[in-house]
Specification:
The protein has 212 residues and is mainly alpha-helical. The chain contains 9 helices and 2 strands. The longest helix is centred in the first third of the chain and has 27 residues, at 3-29. It is globular and about 55 Å long.
Length: 212
């Protein structure tokens, strides 16, 4: 790594840490959750470069950092996950995601799930915090979209919808945007959500099958 790349990476880490500290302070100190949501959403409008993280992305990174240091939560050996150690903070985050940041939070959540190709288990960290029918329906609809693309014979068109959700340029390598891989990750998330709450009015186990 040359000096410029190292400096840019270091600057990015410092900025990420600063954003997370800012979000942490705001969530802990401010009781008005809608005001917190308004500040976070307002920040997304200030940066029009979709290749860079906006405040909603930083919020999700912050949430993940808090869950990673929490305690194990294993409703089933097939779906091991974690929960935040601070339950008051967890309650605030759940309300922010499902109520106050909706609908703006939906695409960042879908993007997070679609981009996480190397450590799918961590998708459950975020999935545990989602209980809104509207957000769950968006996850299911995205799964259906990816499932339809699996057998598209055109390799570039086959990955296009995954890239759109990932917010990758169309010229990005197709191997990172396989609809089969993405649909499998979303299936895992949907199965976990169905384990923790009733979703029969949104989808059934039959509807999340990848095979006939």
């Amino acid at each position: 790594m040359n000096d410029n790349n190292f400096i840019n990476k270091l600057d990015s880490i410092v900025l990420e840490r600063a954003e997370q500290l800012k979000i942490d302070s705001m969530i802990r100190d401010e009781k008005d959750l809608q005001m917190i949501a308004d500040v976070i959403i307002e920040g997304t409008y200030k940066d029009t470069d979709i290749q860079r993280k906006d405040t909603l992305d930083h919020f999700l990174d912050y949430v993940m950092s808090k869950v990673r240091t929490g305690s194990y939560y294993i409703p089933s050996l097939a779906y091991p996950t974690r929960r935040m150690a601070d339950k008051e903070l967890e309650d605030k985050v759940i309300k922010l995601i499902n109520i106050h940041l909706y609908p703006e939070i939906v695409l960042p959540i879908l993007k997070f799930f679609a981009r996480n190709v190397k450590d799918s288990d961590k998708n459950l960290f975020l999935a545990y915090l989602i209980n809104s029918d509207e957000i769950i329906k968006s996850i299911f609809d995205t799964f259906v979209l990816f499932k339809k693309d699996i057998f598209n014979p055109d390799k570039d068109k086959r990955t296009l919808n995954v890239k759109r959700i990932q917010q990758f340029p169309p010229t990005t390598e197709n191997q990172l945007s396989s609809p089969l891989d993405a649909a499998s990750r979303f299936k895992y998330i949907l199965e976990f959500i169905a384990l923790k709450q009733n979703v029969e009015h949104i989808y059934t186990p039959e509807q999340t099958k990848l095979s006939a």
